[in-house]
Amino acid sequence: MGSARVVLTNDLDLDARKEFIAATWASIQSESHGGSPVEVDCVAVASFGPVDEAVIGMLVNLARASQRNGARVALVHAAKPMRAQFERAGVAHFFDWER
């Protein structure tokens, strides 16, 4: 089974976050027994500014839920500043990082 993929953007308002969470949670549930990570494509996230703290919290909660369900979340195409921001926040270890 291939990895499920959802796309993260940096302009998520409250409704868009709800949709993102629902899509990611559905992917987590479908992948929990397949061994493939749920991929969050970060290519659309602007690399020139920091990721919103609420978005980081949302992703960490999804990653922890994924781990409880036997799956992982992979952040794909994340810019170096994004990864550095997650490392500074002490949450980078919740994710697989793929280029």
What does the model show?
The protein is of the alpha/beta class and 99 residues long. Helix content is 43%, strand content 15%. It has a four-stranded parallel β-sheet with strand order 1-2-3-4. The longest helix is centred in the N-terminal third of the chain and has 18 residues, at 14-31.
Q: Can you name the CATH architecture?
A: 2-Layer Sandwich
Helix proportion: 40-55%
Q: Briefly, what CATH class? A: Alpha Beta
Strand content: 15-25%
What is the residue-mean pLDDT, rounded to a whole number? Answer: 85
The ordered string of helix (H) and strand (E) elements is EHEHEHE
CATH topology: Transcription Regulator spoIIAA
Shape: globular
Number of helical elements: 3
Unreliable spans are none
The description of the largest β-sheet is: 4 strands, parallel
**Distance N to C terminus:** 20 Å
Number of separate strands: 4
Class by SSE composition: alpha/beta
Précis, in short:
By secondary structure, the protein is α/β, with parallel strands linked by helices.
Task: Supply database-style keywords.
99 residues, alpha/beta, Transcription Regulator spoIIAA, four-stranded parallel sheet, 4 strands, 43% helix, globular
List the helices and strands and how they pair.
Layout: E1 5-7, H1 14-31, E2 38-41, H2 53-68, E3 73-76, H3 80-88, E4 95-98
Parallel strand pairs: 1-2, 2-3, 3-4
Helix pairs in contact: 1-2
